[in-house]
Amino acid sequence: MQWFYISVLCLVIFTIIMAPLLTVQLSLSAILSSATIEIKIKGKSLFGLLRFQKEWNIADILEFEKSIEKDETEQEIPLQFSSLWDEVKNIPRNIRPFRRIINQFLMKIKINQFEWKTTIGLGDAADTGVATGVIWSLKGTLISWLRNYLSFLKNPVLIVQPNYQQTAFESNFQCMMKIKVGNAMVTAYKLAKEWKKHKKRSFSHNEKDRRIFNV
Known about the structure:
Shape: extended
């Protein structure tokens, strides 16, 4: 029995030491068309011994929306659009104190594969040509923006294929990336530390405003 506890203790120590050195490989793929929406996320680590996979499709999304509507109907809770919009508008301001930490973490993510193919057809050759140019422009802008925050080990593969014969739309996206567990742990620690500082500064600022108001 003593050897069992020693083995468990050694395993725990080994896990604690090795966990920061592990690399998680994530694979994200998505298919968006006029008929379906499919999203798939795969992950593996420890030389493939640890794996997980999650898939969503349009049926799951619709079922989720129906469940939300059902819960809201049963609880009879009015939807506060104004409060929701205020939260959305405050997102850039709320993440501002953590932007530097998040950017440092994103730069350590390695993108091994990035492929994005889109087929577009509007039934008219001229309209299809214009739509193709717009999609090319949007993709180029997005990739230029992503290069500021992510490290691409290979050049992204972007394809826009016009379909002049019929009305069609389909977009296939694939991305593979590597993230070190140690970097994620350090980032989580820095975010928690910065969050405490931010809450302390906010509390001090509110107390100062309250004293000024009372005077």
